[in-house]
Amino acid sequence: MKTNNNLEIKYSKGTIVIHWISSILILLLFPMGKYMSDLDPVDKFSLIKIHAILGFIVFIATIIRSIIFFKYKRPEDLKTGSKLNDRLTIWIHNSFYFLLLIISLSGIASMINGGYIDAFKQNSVELIKSPEMILPLKSHDLFATIMMILLILHVIGVIKHYILTKENTLKRIS
Known about the structure:
By secondary structure, this protein is mainly α. It contains 5 helices and no strands.
């Protein structure tokens, strides 16, 4: 299957930088969150601070990237030779923006609802509620898991596109 995508037209430098910084942070945040879920508040107190700071950086980066997405010209969507794959690619890309925003907002809500902000201010682990009492935490975990599934599909799609079309689509985002 051969397509004729113009890979010389790249995303903006801002989009490229945000893409890779966000990717690295997400790959750190997900396992960190999974690891912390089994720890008691005393053991995860410092990790939660780091997780929250890195998550907030991803949140701000996603807002900036969303603005860039709508404000500046970007390369045309890739053509794969299959209308279904073309639509799936667009759906996955757009879902990343939505998921990153909803994960960030549910993380912020978890911090507020779970007593973490007061706990950090007063340096008191006792102010943190148990995970079962923090309702936004459930959606935070669910959407983070969905994000990781989509990330895996995204990487598989890049590899599949390279194998089937012999096009190095990473040129557009590097």
